[in-house]
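Researcher: Sequence recovery benchmark, item below. Answer with residues only.
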């Protein structure tokens, strides 16, 4: 079955550009469009989608609130946030609201397609170097961290903590496996345990948690591997 995508952006030309790229793919169908967050929530009441490509700054209901509303729906689609470097705090908040990742608006078509396929497959878009740079900037918008390490991190084994740090630094499962000299299946097992112990939904949420708790810092400082 083809991946069903909904486009959400208040600029019609932006939607047209993405629609042209996605419409040329044999395994992707653009099943709907909306100009703001309120409209997409209403649209999803009548259209079934797998992935929502979501702008952030829009009239009426912005992309962050729309993400929160969409993720609260029964069997909700995945959400990919569209952002620019001057919207860091919005994209970070959207990740916390349940988005599976985010892209820059000038993303190359190949990266856009790869991201859509990744989130549809259940992964999160946290690996590209642009994402790492954005995540580093997000921490400027975070509240002050607690002096003591949170209980969620204390539950992790040494190996699980290593895996989480590398995930937060933007490495893929295969890259982590190579770095730690493990089988990729073993990395997936460790990551699954990390998600369960942290009480987060997916890889993107784990990255947010690592930055938010201070496990990894804006400038790459943190537990050495």
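Model:
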């Amino acid at each position: 079955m083809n991946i069903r995508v909904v486009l959400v952006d208040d600029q019609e030309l932006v939607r047209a550009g993405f629609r042209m790229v996605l419409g040329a793919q044999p395994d992707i169908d653009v099943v709907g469009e909306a100009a703001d967050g309120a409209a997409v929530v209403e649209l999803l009441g009548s259209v079934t989608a797998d992935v929502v490509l979501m702008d952030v700054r829009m009239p009426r209901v912005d992309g962050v609130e729309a993400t929160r509303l969409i993720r609260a729906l029964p069997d909700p689609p995945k959400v990919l946030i569209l952002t620019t470097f001057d919207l860091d705090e919005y994209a970070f908040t959207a990740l916390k609201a349940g988005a599976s990742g985010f892209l820059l608006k000038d993303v190359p078509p190949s990266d856009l397609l790869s991201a859509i396929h990744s989130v549809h497959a259940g992964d999160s878009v946290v690996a590209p170097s642009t994402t790492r740079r954005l995540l580093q900037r997000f921490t400027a918008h975070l509240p002050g961290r607690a002096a003591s390490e949170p209980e969620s991190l204390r539950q992790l084994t040494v190996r699980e903590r290593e895996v989480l740090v590398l995930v937060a630094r933007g490495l893929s499962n295969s890259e982590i496996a190579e770095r730690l000299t493990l089988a990729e299946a073993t990395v997936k097992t460790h990551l699954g345990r990390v998600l369960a112990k942290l009480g987060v939904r997916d890889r993107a949420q784990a990255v947010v948690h690592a930055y938010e708790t201070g496990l990894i810092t804006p400038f790459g400082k943190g537990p050495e591997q």
